[in-house]
Amino acid sequence: MSPRIITFSALALVTAALGAGCATQGPIPTQQLTMARTLVEQADKADAQRYAPADLQRAHDELSSAEKAVNDQKYDDARRYAENAQVDADLASARASSGEAQRAAREVDRTIDTLKQESERHANDPGAH
Amino acid sequence: MNRNILSAVLVALATGCATTPMHSDRLDEARAEVEKVSADPLAQQAAGKDVEEARNDLQRAETALQQRQAPVDVDHLAYLALRHAQSGEARIAEARARQQVAQAQDERNRVQLHERELEAQNARSAAENAKSSAAAAQNDAANAQSELANARQELKDLQAKQTARGLVMTLSDVLFDTGQATLKPGADRALDRLAQFLKDSPGTNLLVEGHTDSVGTDDYNLALSQRRAQSVADALSTRGVATDRVQTKGLGKAYPVASNDTQAGRQQNRRVEIVFSDKSGQFAQSSP
């Protein structure tokens, strides 16, 4: 191997490393994208629009970005976006479910207050039923 | 020359091809969030999976930082950790809300139970009241019945007889001094009973009629019968009977009940008859 060839190879390596933004592109993140789509769909169904609209919007945006990155063949970006979409969608679902539970708790609290008031009225006025 | 180039390549590779900063704001944020959610007493029970994932992400982010990997990767892993931690918090809040609902339902059951007990208590006391009212009514009825029985007994004791003119009681001649209007002490018991009966029957009035036999003049007999009737009325007045409840009438010899031809018949004819009105003060017939 001539010194010339060695020099060329080394230069090519450095150039490649720097040119690629020092990243080596992974494969198309098919699995992450599928999971992200599933989770975003679940969040849509979980009424996240009502309780966590910002989280749901971010999940949709990240999923769009992931799909666009795949089209642009930026697979590492696509994987990160897809993973972000997953956690955003999961958060939206969790907040939707939590919001629904808290609404139920407030409602049952109100019911009890009403009941207690009625009960006290009855205690003060046993004749009224 | 070659050595220099090789060195440069090696350095570039060893430093992870980047001038990695040793700090990431996003990682700080993730650390704080993961710590916060881990500290919650409900973390394991309500958000075990989220917390575990958040910790794994955080660990990978820390490792990436230490290995000076690209900031975009460190931030990405920190973002995953942050979001997993936040999901955990949401699930813990959900669990709390569900506990609250369960407690509230217990509370509601308790309040409703209390309410029902109160109603039952009211119903019981209403029943008690009704029962004692019924008992009182029964008692009143019993009293009324015994009063009626008393009155009947009293009338019987007075030896009153039911006639077309109503109840009639006869005070016989032997209760008066001969030819006089004065009542003998033997009449006291009958008069006491009569006064008691009138007290017990406030609506009943009396018509007191004096009768004689046929011996003597009509004027004498009328006057004597009138005075004897008045004696009875006075005796009742003395015993507390209002005078307006007692009318008197002297009828002389006009209404014999037996023959005036015999001693026994004449004695029967010499009498005072006491006629009872009904309870409203009305007499069956005003006069014989």
Task: Give an overview in words.
- The complex is a heterodimer of chains A (129) and B (288).
- With 129 residues, chain A is mostly helical.
- Chain A has 5 helices and no strands.
- In chain A, helix 2 (30-45) runs antiparallel to helix 4 (53-71), helix 2 (30-45) runs parallel beside helix 5 (75-124) and helix 4 (53-71) runs antiparallel to helix 5.
- Chain B has 288 residues and is an alpha+beta fold.
- Chain B has 2 domains: 20-144; 158-276, 60s Ribosomal Protein L30, Chain: A.
- Chain B is 62% helix and 9% strand.
- Chain B is rod-shaped, with a radius of gyration of 59 Å.
- The chains are: A mainly alpha (129), B alpha+beta (288).
- At the A-B interface, helix 1 and helix 5 of A face helix 1 and helix 4 of B.
Compact overview of the structure:
Chain A has 5 helices and no strands.
What is the secondary structure topology, with strand pairs?
The complex is a heterodimer of chains A (129) and B (288).
Chain A: H1 3-19, H2 30-45, H3 48-51, H4 53-71, H5 75-124
Helix pairs in contact in A: 2-4, 2-5, 4-5
Chain B: H1 2-14, H2 25-39, H3 43-66, H4 71-157, E1 161-163, E2 166-172, H5 188-200, E3 206-211, H6 218-238, E4 246-250, H7 263-269, E5 271-276
Parallel strand pairs in B: 3-4
Antiparallel strand pairs in B: 1-2, 2-5, 3-5
Helix pairs in contact in B: 2-3, 2-4, 3-4, 4-5
